Each structure stands twice: as structure tokens, then as C-alpha cells.
């Protein structure tokens, strides 16, 4: 099985990706931020296969490309924006899509 995890570099996403890789599965890890090198090194030592995509989950074409290129059979959507007043006032358009 190949699973796409959105929000893969967040707290929940990292733990889900680690568990799937530990079970020998292929994970298409989709996130707006890159994986820290230390975590990538640890994940690559696990028996599963990690494919990392960096991008915005709202980018339909990129998400569809990742899904089709890797034969994704399951999606776990964990991408979120944890907003607060300072962030919303700094970049309000991100929250109004």
C-alpha cells in the first residue's frame, strides 16, 4: 500500500510517517516545509520507502501529480494552518481561500 500523508512534517504527520515506514510501507510525504535532515536520515533507515514532496496542499496539480506518479491508495490528510492573531494579520489572504 502507498499512503500519502499531508502535513507530513507536523507533529502528528511525523509520527504517522514513522509508523508507516516502520511497517515497510511506501509513504508519499507532502508538506509545505522540508523535513529536517536528522529526521530524513532516521526515516531512510526504516524498512519503508519515503517520497518527500514539498509544496502547498492547496496546489491541486501538484497533489494530483504526487498521487498519480506513486500509485497512492490511501490519503491521510493532516495538513493544517495553526492560526493566531499575529499570523492572520501578517498574511490574511492565506486564511481566506
Shape: globular
At the fourth level of CATH, the homologous superfamily is NAD(P)-binding Rossmann-like Domain
- Give the SSE string: EHEHEHEH
Tell me the number of structural domains: 1
Number of strands: 4
Which structural class is indicated by helix and strand composition? alpha/beta
- Give the % helix: 25-40%
Biggest β-sheet, characterized? 4 strands, parallel
Radius of gyration: 14 Å
Could you tell me the CATH topology label: Rossmann fold
Question: Can you give the mean pLDDT?
Answer: 91
Poorly predicted regions are none
Which percent range describes the beta-strand content? 15-25%
- The level 1 CATH classification is Alpha Beta
How are strands sequenced across the largest beta sheet?
A: 3-2-1-4
Query: Treating each run of at least 4 consecutive H or I residues as one helix, how many helices?
Result: 4
CATH architecture, by name, is: 3-Layer(aba) Sandwich
Can you describe this structure in just a few lines?
This protein is of the alpha/beta class.
Amino acid at each position: 500500500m502507498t499512503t500519502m500523508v499531508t502535513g507530513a512534517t507536523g507533529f502528528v504527520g511525523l509520527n504517522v510517517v514513522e509508523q508507516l515506514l516502520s511497517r515497510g510501507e511506501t509513504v508519499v510525504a507532502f508538506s509545505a516545509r522540508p523535513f529536517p535532515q536528522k529526521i530524513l536520515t532516521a526515516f531512510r533507515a526504516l524498512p519503508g520507502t519515503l517520497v518527500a514532496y514539498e509544496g502547498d496542499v492547496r496546489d491541486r496539480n501538484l497533489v494530483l501529480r504526487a498521487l498519480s506518479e506513486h500509485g497512492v491508495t490511501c490519503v491521510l490528510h493532516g495538513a493544517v494552518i495553526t492560526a493566531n492573531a499575529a499570523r492572520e494579520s501578517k498574511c490574511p489572504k492565506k486564511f481566506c481561500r
